[in-house]
Design brief:
The chain is of the alpha+beta class and about 425 residues long. The protein contains 13 helices and 16 strands. A seven-stranded antiparallel β-sheet has the order 1-3-2-15-14-13-12, sandwiched between helices. Strands 7-6-16 form a three-stranded mixed β-sheet. A hairpin with a 2-residue loop joins strand 13 and strand 14.
Length: about 425
């Protein structure tokens, strides 16, 4: 998360805001407690093991001032553990549960990826056509005007498009949904003479040869999907992803979700915990998704199962496989992205030295992860409603590691239980 975004969230007169926030929420840093427990189990973990991970997570939250979080562990493509911790409001009256809604940052790109692949599956888009075929304005890299940019380039962050910070920061709209239409913003960003156009919106590189993580590029992909399917991305995904999967606590816009179930967001700043206003984003396909741990786990399992969950299919197997297939080989790897850095699917990526796949997210008041191992047999979903900075930021990773190790123990227990059942049947 950028320090500039935190500053925007806190406001220019941060001192009085900190003092006011302190009076209301000072005790949150030490009062974060386990307030919801919804363990689901294909096997029963020991009470001691469950209590131990609960205690360790609560201790880490209190140490750095995390107000609330929810998490799920997925083993063999089933949720086997799901908990909420802490609170979803500054006054500590509303528990953070696996059904609590919050922004998930760039995990949203995976939903945009599914929508894109659904349009590809239906013959409405091609991953390798010039994107200008689908747009009402032209996108041309001024450094490489003859080169073609494709959806595959956008989805692997190799298009040559970059986020220009002074423009992108203004796409966050504190206090509500953004009033600026996605298409209008993108036209201004990419059209010569547009209000946000500059050569610096691009890098001097041929598409496919340099990886430059670009939120605006993801937003452009979402807009292309909208143009292809003939309706806004939020409507299309509600019909073809959220409703079929039973994701009843999921939407893109503040106006689409129950605000009474939406977590407040917080920034831990210089020892204080500061609630910040909820916000919308003009470029919402890149990070505007709002969902719960319970709902996001359904979506994640559908991807890990090749596009299907509980008998409902959101993508055919070919499309789901292509989205998750590693796109970089020795022959086409971007020059600034060595094999040691991992690989990329389509709005899908590796992390932890290539050993885990999925996506994460970071925004003001938001830290999230949705990761599985390469086999898809172990996964973790983690949503945290508090931004951390400096050395404290490592605590989120330590909580993820705790969850991962607990998942490994649950997977091992499940394996032994299966072995015992097999022997009993002999």
């Amino acid at each position: 998360m950028s320090a500039n975004l935190v500053g925007a969230a806190l406001g220019t007169d941060a001192g009085p805001a900190l003092a006011r926030a302190l009076a209301a929420v000072r005790r949150l840093a030490t009062a974060a407690a386990i307030v919801w427990s919804g363990t689901l189990h294909a096997q029963a973990p020991s009470i001691a093991a469950t209590q131990d991970i609960d205690r360790q997570i609560a201790e880490r939250m209190a140490r750095v001032g995390i107000v609330g979080l929810g998490a799920a562990i997925i083993v063999d493509r089933q949720v086997v553990w799901m908990h909420g911790f802490g609170f979803a409001d500054p006054g500590r009256t509303r528990p953070f549960t696996p059904r609590t809604v919050m922004n998930v940052g760039s995990i949203a790109k995976t939903v945009t990826g599914v929508a894109m692949m659904r349009a590809v599956q239906d013959g409405l888009l091609s991953l390798d056509e010039d994107i200008n075929r689908y747009l009402p304005f032209r996108v041309v890299n001024p450094y490489r005007p003859q080169e073609t940019i494709t959806l595959r380039h956008l989805a692997t962050h190799t298009s040559g498009i970059r986020d220009r910070w002074e423009v992108y920061a203004r796409t966050y709209h504190y206090g509500g949904d953004s009033p600026v239409p996605l298409g209008s913003f993108l036209a201004d960003y990419f059209t010569v003479g547009g209000a946000h156009y500059a050569r610096e919106n691009f890098v001097d590189a041929r598409p496919g040869t340099r990886r430059e993580y670009a939120n605006v590029g993801a937003a452009l992909a979402g807009y292309i999907v909208e143009r292809a399917v003939g309706e806004p991305l939020n409507v299309f995904t509600r019909t073809h992803v959220f409703a079929p999967l039973g994701m009843t606590n999921t939407g893109w816009l503040l106006s689409e979700v129950d605000l009474g179930n939406h977590s407040a967001l917080f920034v831990a700043h210089n020892g204080f915990i500061v609630p910040i206003p909820l916000y919308g984003g003009t470029t919402y396909p890149d990070g505007g998704l709002r969902t719960s741990v319970e709902d996001l786990s359904r979506f994640f399992i559908a991807l890990l199962r090749g596009g299907e969950y509980a008998g409902v299919r959101i993508l055919d197997e070919t499309a789901a496989r292509e989205m998750q297939r590693f796109q970089f080989t020795d022959a086409n790897r971007p020059e600034n992205f060595p094999a040691s850095d991992g690989n990329s699917g389509l709005f899908w990526r590796t992390k932890f030295r290539g050993q885990r796949v999925g996506h994460g997210g970071s925004d003001p008041g938001v830290q999230t992860e949705m990761l599985a191992d390469r086999s898809g047999t172990l996964g973790v979903v983690l949503l945290v409603n508090t931004s951390l900075s400096g050395r404290d930021a490592a605590v989120t990773s330590s909580i993820l590691d705790l969850l991962w190790r607990h998942g490994e123990s649950l997977r091992e227990a499940r394996k032994h239980e299966g072995d015992d059942l097999t022997r009993a049947r002999r």
